[in-house]
Design a protein that fits this description.
Three copies of one chain form a homotrimer.
Chain A (H helix, E strand, L loop, with lengths): L1 H16 L7 H17 L3 H21 L4 H4 L5 H13 L4 H25 L9 H14 L27 H13 L7 H14 L1 H20 L4 H5 L5 H13 L5 H25 L9 H11 L11
Helix pairs in contact in A: 1-2, 1-3, 1-5, 2-3, 2-9, 3-5, 3-6, 5-6, 5-7, 6-7, 8-9, 8-10, 9-10, 10-12, 10-13, 12-13, 12-14, 13-14
Chain lengths: 313, 313, 313
């Protein structure tokens, strides 16, 4: 019984940790602590509760169809649901219909992940957070045509999105943008949460913490150099996808070495342009890219299946 | 000679029956009867003639490249053409250029189906009605930039599609929406045609008739609960994709049992949200989703390849 | 040393030749000559220099990860970069940030090509020019949200694109549209460049020259018949994708014979509608289709894997 409880708890927190590829309940616990801190700081406590509910719902959905599984215990059924749980209360009004939709969507992501992974298996990549991205996009689009889902925090749909470029680039501000780039992985706009996340990563993998920090910094530099949308930069919205790309390419799917580091930098830089490009694609819908740019960039840099480690180390 | 005629006639009607997965010339005949009834009732007789021409053209296209085939006789070369034949005269002006485009597009769907099925074969799914959806989308998009194809019945492109929510939910009206949800599979807006289709399905498969009826009802309930576009609801536009999902998942690709029934209900519910989401995606183009939501939902629920039957019956 | 120089030079020009599937340094040289002529004629010399820089950058990118390769020498690492090099200076302002982006994007296309080809290998098709299309789309989208990339020559984003249909169809004008349809493969708007390209093709393959000429003529006829956008027709913008489809289907992936000729004509006609359709899709973004319609059409007609030659010759 006690043992069963331990397994359940560690399954749950692994699910949150796997959002950044870490199979560690302690990392998951610290992630959730950071989410709670940030969501209460931003007066959106429902985001943190959504993360917990979404993780539980999507993990449960896996066990409903496949009673026994290592995937479940490793947290691989939880991470898409965790992100659905952060995204729904961030963009939609806090109503009971939203919670029903959140739970249903979180459950579907686990099944969709199985399907997408089946499709991608021959090329040795997987669906990453794309089940979350794909299903949440569909529900946010649906919120545009369903009065039962109220898209209170989505932008107004518009054709082009002109802006004047002005950004506070003092050192202190840059540090805040850099940390927010990390916190935004869970859609949290708080530099303190960014510190939580860095510590949480370091608990499980120093390399993951290093690449999260490095990728957010590189992305910030490129975004400023090419004068991307300053409002997005200051909220860390050019950081979260590169952070995930950095952890994925830099130390999850390749072993760290000089060649893979150069490859990861190229992937991180590409993620910034893909982020800017996808921002323009979703503007007429007033939608958000979610972690789509990370998925696209990581697929692009993993699909060639270059054997970078063998040739070096 | 007589035998050849019988084969030709049954090939033709099988093609219409396969739109709802039924390989039965009688079902196809009753479908076409329903289409004729509804299209004359709506003062668009060209839709019914289009269905006949499209079925013939796409079936012929298959024989041009592969002279002998069981696929052809089973009606699998006809159903995409049947739908092209319904869609073109529904949305485009009745000109001779429209008929040339209809015939060409119907022919191409048969070849495209072969290609798409080749692509999807490793995952044991197929392209369903997606060749029709994909090619018809391209031609309807093209109608926006070609004066030779006049998009008389497409909506005005607009960024968002705000609406006030008001729907007559008397029992009689709900029955009509429910039946129109079934008739709209062939783009027909007539509750009498819906009855034709239910009878036609029952002739070949009681389960297919059951799931068509159940799926249209479930979809209607979810669409009303989440207050989807009332104009669409009252024309059955939230029903036709779930109807196809229901027949496909509930009794075509899985054998009916309690577990697959629950799975089918989840797929039908998902189809409603996918319908609402895809409506929002095509709004800036003034386009229509066709049966795209059915294809997406059915792929999502078939790709995981869960063995639901084995574990139960 | 001298031998090494020859290999380098022939690798470079093969890269330009492969844009139209010709592995011949002489064809590549004549292509580049035509590009220089046309780009200076249009007062956009940076387009020609971009083509040279892009070809070099993308070829180099291949050697950085895979030191030895027949693909590289055959020019298969160069052609996507050549097109990136033509496209960036055509649509973006001539700044140093544009050149950095051009070089980075050209390099990425070579890696992306490897990944896309891995994905498509099971179905015996490849990615054609899609790595160029996909990455350039992302960067042109990004230019909408990055002040560092100035989209000076992209259209204004708008919802629909109404136009009055009026076109000079004198014989002389038709010949010019026809030749520009060929020159636009490299985004050059010059009928003289079209002649350069026909000669360059004939040097390597008479069939390629024939299908380029035939496809541009057929496409012109269909575009006029269906009254497609006259401004696009007169600049050859309905020709370049069909030209590539014609060369690909007519004499690269199928051996020329009567059956494959009919198949190629169907593919070329389809490309015109796909071009018109994709034009409508990108209008709200003020974007351009690049050679996307060619890729889509050629996939659609190659994926069925019909054995057209065996049954005839």
């Amino acid at each position: 019984m006690n043992n069963k409880l331990t397994t359940t708890v560690s399954t749950f927190f692994n699910g949150i940790g796997q959002v950044m590829f870490q199979q560690s309940p302690w990392t998951g616990l610290l992630f959730l602590a950071g989410i709670f801190w940030g969501s209460y700081e931003c007066h959106l406590p429902q985001v943190a509760w959504g993360a917990a509910v979404g993780t539980a719902a999507s993990t449960l959905a896996g066990y409903l169809v496949t009673p026994k599984s290592g995937d479940g215990r490793a947290g691989l059924w939880g991470f898409n649901g965790a992100l659905v749980g952060c995204a729904f209360p961030t963009f939609l009004a806090n109503t009971w219909l939203m919670w029903i939709a959140l739970i249903f969507c979180a459950m579907v992501t686990t099944w969709v992940r199985q399907g997408f992974n089946n499709v991608m298996a021959p090329w040795k990549v997987n669906s990453y957070t794309f089940p979350f991205v794909f299903m949440t996009w569909l529900f946010l689009f649906a919120a545009r045509t369903m009065h039962g889902l109220d898209a209170v925090a989505l932008s107004t749909p518009e054709l082009a999105d002109p802006f004047t470029w002005s950004l506070d680039t003092s050192f202190g501000s840059l540090v805040i943008y850099w940390l927010k780039g990390i916190s935004q992985v869970f859609l949290i706009n708080s530099w303190i949460t960014g510190i939580f996340f860095l510590v949480a990563l370091a608990v499980c993998s120093r390399w993951a913490a290093f690449w999260a920090a490095a990728a957010s910094a590189i992305a910030l530099g490129i975004a400023i150099m090419f004068k991307a949308d300053p409002a997005d930069i200051s909220q860390g919205l050019f950081g979260f996808s590169p952070v995930l790309t950095g952890i994925a390419v830099g130390c999850t799917f390749y072993k760290p070495c000089l060649r893979t580091a150069l490859w990861t930098i190229a992937a991180v830089v590409a993620t910034v342009f893909i982020q800017a490009g996808m921002d323009a694609i979703v503007t007429p819908y007033g939608l958000t890219t979610l972690t789509g740019p990370f998925c696209v960039a990581t697929w692009l840099f993993m699909l060639p299946q270059y054997k970078l480690n063998k040739q070096v180390s």
